[in-house]
Each structure stands twice: as structure tokens, then as C-alpha cells.
Amino acid sequence: MKNIMQKLINFMYGRYGFDKLSYFLFVLCFVVAVVNSFRGAYTLYAIELAIISLVFFRAFSRNIFKRQKESEAFERLLLRLRIYKLQKPLRNLHLRLIYLRTHRFRKCPNCKENLRLKRKTGRREIVCPKCGYQFKIFIIF
Ligand SMILES: [Zn+2]
């Protein structure tokens, strides 16, 4: 087993490997595969194969400079499409799920900061720790 791992490490030496673009292509391929499981079209199957071939071609490529250029172009595209703006709402949703049993979340009406409050039902007055604005909240359950 150790011998196989060593051979794999030697094989990957000097090759590009996987990056964000590879993971994106993997997800894209998975989506195409799920869609194709309903349709069963040969063209979609060919697209899946092409995407997977591209991922492995990039991973085993020795032209690291060119692969890095592709990766940078992909990052620029993400910035231009403002994909990163989706990160904050997704993080907030994640936090709400984590603290579902113990806390409630409210937005400060003054500075729009997302506040995590102890789960105490009823009306109460709170002070925003960021801007000091005082406002009333009502937690039902
Ligand atoms: Zn505030």
C-alpha cells in the first residue's frame, strides 16, 4: 500500500493537480450526470466525458504556468459575476441552522448588522453592540 502511494506521489510530482476550477468542473459534471439520468441522451453523456477528461488533463498537466493562467481567468470570471456576494447569505443561513435551538437572529435596523440573540421569548429591548442603536424585538418561539 505504501509502495502504491509512493508511486502515485512520484507520478504527480511536477504536475498541476486540482484547483477551484477542477472542483467547479466536477460539480458541473455531477449536475450534467443528474440531468442525464432523467434524459439518457448520448450528447449529454459525451459532455460528461469531455468535462471529466478536461479535469484529469488539467490535473496531470506539466504546463503549470498555463494551468495557473486558466485558474486566474476563472477567479476573475467569478469576481465579475459577483458569485462571492452569495457567500454572506449562505454563511448566515448556516449560522441560523447551527444555533437553531439556542439563539435567534435579528438584523439591526440602523447598521444592518446580523445579531445573534439568546432565545428568550417575548418582547424586549436590545442594544446593537456595533453601533449602539437601541431597538425593540419580539421573539415568538
Ligand atoms: Zn447596529
Could you give the topology of this structure?
Layout: H1 2-12, H2 20-39, H3 42-60, H4 64-80, H5 87-98, E1 103-107, E2 114-118, E3 122-127, E4 134-139
Antiparallel strand pairs: 1-2, 3-4
Helix pairs in contact: 2-3
The protein binds zinc ion.
Zinc ion (ZN) binds at residues 108, 110-111, 113, 128, 130-131, 133.
Bound molecules: zinc ion
- Helix % is 55-70%
- Determine the structural class based on helices, strands and strand pairing: alpha+beta
The gyration radius over C-alpha positions equals: 24 Å
* Structural domain count: 2
Largest sheet: 2 strands, antiparallel
| Strand content bin | 15-25%
- Let me know the number of strands: 4
Order of helices and strands: HHHHHEEEE
Lateral strand order in the biggest sheet: 1-2
Average pLDDT, rounded to a whole number, is 90
Shape: elongated
> What's the helix count?
5
User: How far from one another are the termini?
Assistant: 55 Å
Low-confidence stretches: none
Can you offer a commentary on this structure?
The chain has two domains: 2-81, no CATH class; 87-139, no CATH class. 56% of the residues lie in helices and 16% in strands. The protein is built from five helices and four strands; from the N terminus they run H-H-H-H-H-E-E-E-E. The strands form two sheets. A two-stranded antiparallel sheet has the order 1-2. Residues 108, 110-111, 113, 128, 130-131, 133 line the site of zinc ion (ZN).
